[in-house]
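[Meeting: bench + compute handoff]

Bench side (C.D.) handed over the final construct sequence. Compute side (W.E.) agreed to return the predicted structure before the next meeting so the bench team could plan truncations. Sequence as handed over:
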Amino acid sequence: MIKVGIIGSTGYAGAELVRLLMNHRDAEIVWYGSRSYVDQQYADIYGNFFELVDEKCLADDLDALAEKADVIFTATPQGFCASKVTEGLLGKVKVIDLSADYRIRDAARYEEWYGIHHPTPEFLEEAVYGLPELKRDAVASARLVANPGCFPTCSLLAVIPAMKSGLIDKQSVIIDAKSGVTGAGRGAKVQNLYCEVNETVKAYGVTTHRHTPEIEDYLGEAAGEAVTVQFTPHLVPMNRGILVTAYASLTADTDEETIRKFYEEAYADEPFVRLLPPGRVPETRWVRGSNYADVNIKADRRTGRLIMMGAIDNIGKGAAGQAVQNMNIMFGLDEREGLMTVPLSV
């Protein structure tokens, strides 16, 4: 039985981790960490766990937790995990960080986009980017996994097979993305109040969104060269979900079937990426509450562009679900364990 500690268990991603791990046959939660709710009953914060979780929230003490757990999930703001990771800690316990602290290999680039100092750049080279579809073998042997962001997860899964095909202009990618409000976190912010987000859609972080370098880094890895991406996210009035529609110029007069073969090959054996039939578009409602990513493409010969589409649950495959998938791989389990939940249709 894998003993699990969760730091940040009362955020949206943390609560989703609790929900998923409670249905995991090989995991036991031994620490519900929450700086804001120390000594309060976890089920008093999230009533869906009433009579299911009879534990109090504990402080964010990673050293004490490392003596009890086999793996620690840090579902915390940027800067927290990087300030706590030490060689001593990693010598005792595996760490899966849901923040951006170890996603970007270049500390200066991280500091530029996130506006904070990186306290432990010595671990950037070791940390494994936890997108299993790209880094499964490296995840399996990792001590420290950087769980990808929600927008990058959906964007990369939608675009990478086309990028590897050689049939699109690698510098022409434009990504239009939409997110549910849980992506902004559980903290009280005026701009996230019901009356501020309901009945409206808005772009935000235009040209400055912090997921941009993460998307560029791993699309560039797939392309074999540095790439620059135009990425614009939008906030939509729904709780959960990410929808990506990406565009790139075709470099040859090719047909959709040819490009589709690259997607079929890339995702044929992936348990959580569903390549939809031709003509069907991904929808957030068909992945809600799950670890699935739905992907499809459409070639537009009139404009000479390829449209690449993806949908995930931002706190499922975009956060907690992917984190559990990484844990399964790290401990040699079936990576589907605890994650075979049928998406919620309503």
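W.E. noted at the follow-up: The chain has a mean pLDDT of 96. C.D. will use this when planning the next construct.
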